[in-house]
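Table S7 (text form). Paired inputs.
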Amino acid sequence: MITDAWWAPYLFIAIAGWIATDIWRWLGVLAGNRLKEGSEILNWVRAVATALVMAVTAKLIVFPTGVLEQTPMWLRIGAAAVGFAVFLMAGQRVLIGVIVPLVLLTLGLVALDLR
């Protein structure tokens, strides 16, 4: 029987995960093609997407896991604040906004470990 195979649960997870996410992606593409660039609904979608990203970022800063859990709160908040300021000063370049906080966190971890 196919359900007794060792790979059957993995296949089920892959198919279920693909269906659960891809349906919404395709519906988003279909609906998005009909929206005007400056429409209120598109502005709302962007605002919700931005809010979700910021909520995940805040969760990682306030309730970290893994290596981040070992860093002090001031280091995480400081790296995020400086990274955001540099992101704005650099003309909103995402790569700069990602690299600067990572470098600050790394330097902070190294400095704290040397004590």
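Next pair, protein 2 of 2.
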Amino acid sequence: MHNYQDIQQKLQQLELKLRHELFLIIKDISPDASQLANNASLGDVIDFLSQVKLADTDLFTQLMKLDAALCQLDLGLYGLCSDCEMDIESTRLNTDPTEQRCSSCQQKYLNEHRLELRLNH
């Protein structure tokens, strides 16, 4: 079982780090960069990145995974694989607290999407 407060703290630390990265990226794009990076909801930040054509960035992906992890935590579903709904291995969650799949489902996902992933990178 996962410790709710520890997970919440890890996710909050990650959010602060990502918001700082966001500010560095958008400070020249948006006059409201500081306000957006520091005070906007994650949903608003994600929408903004889509509007300014930054949805294909690693930061966007990380923010989406963070938003999903926070929602799962609120719903009591944190740590369950989004595909098979079994527990995600603790080592995977320790490495990346926003992980959405167990190792088995992640491997299946990578195999099924390898052509798409190759085209994107």
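The two ends are 36 Å apart (CA to CA).
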